[in-house]
Write a structure and sequence with these properties.
alpha/beta, disordered C terminus, elongated, Rossmann fold, 11 helices, Ribosomal Protein S5, domain 2, 18 strands, 428 residues
Amino acid sequence: MVEEKVLPERTRTPASGGSFGPVRLQSVQGDAALERLTTGIAEVDRVLGGGLVPGALILLGGDPGIGKSTLMLQVAALMSQDGPVLYATAEESAQQTRLRAERLGAGSGDLYLLDGTDLATYEEALQSRPWRACVVDSLQTVADPELESAPGSVSQVREVASRLMRVAKSAAIPIFLIGHVNKEGAIAGPRVVEHLVDVVLMFEGDRQHLFRMLRGVKNRFGATNELGLFQMAHEGLVAVEDPSRALLAERPRGAPGSAVAAVLEGSRPMLVEVQALVSRAVGMPRRVVTGIDSAQAALVLAVLERHGGQRLHDKDVYIKVTGGVEVEDPAIDLACAMAIVSSRTGIPIPDDWVLAGELGLTGEVRRAPRMAERLREAAQLGVGRALVPYSGDAPLAVVPVWRIGDAIRALGPGRERGVEEPADDDTS
């Protein structure tokens, strides 16, 4: 005699908008059934690709204290003006969240709070009414009591994300998951979570600076690498509508080592200031880089040494993108190179110049994509001349530079007093 356990029959239910079998592509409902929801903050909508898609699962990561909870509470409060929104907090009590909401002026809408760490409670609350959106703060603190592992472990994070995804799809509720970041700068937890969700956003910036950046890393419903800029204020995070003007507001005039670069972040062209400082090295030369990749800076220095006639192997070189902004666009190469040359020679780059171009290993300056849009953005801020590898129509004067030597010669000969003269074999 062998005992066999008879399991109860489970009713098969298709996911929201799905079916039990294959369907013809033309019969699937189009965008009209998935009308995007606005978050109330234009910069967030931009990064999301135009707004929230019902049933989307969005993972928001960032360093501790950078402002993730503040941003999500502001989004929840604005969205609650048009319908009920659930803010589930597992790290703070409801009283603490209310105090923060009052400080941000975010307590006037149809906003509901749910505190606790039990995943089953979250599922019941999400199915209790047609929520406009939900925020879970945070993914690492919610747990399923039936699992023996601790909250934040690999099994718990995977289980929480999977079950919340099923609820989001079946009830067509967009859910924000706030995630922690580890020492390496990646979202803590298994990589399967990033593959599971529809959108991955990173909230970046230096807590010592005013500016914060919301960057799209993955987006199934829009373009990736979009960028939204925010400024930290007493009343919370304020969207920066004109990033170029804000980032160049404190740029010094007539100072050697300062250059303006026209970069492209996602679909947004903007101007940033690149500063460089070259000084005599005492001992081993130092290379300190902030705002761009260190390997990219090393490439710029090597090209200047080999093809630009700049002796830098015995110099300390410091490179910084001001405002705490992280730039991934390779078109910032030319501005970095000219800022270094300007600092080394003591010749200031004219205040009305803008630069954009990627440096090749043979000393050529390569054209950046969508150059016309970059130049239009520069012209709106009163820039008069652009040093770029470009020969088309432009709203400002263009000085074509196709090699790094062209750009160095455009800066002009001569040096300010008190600046170290180069050796005979070190010409610019």
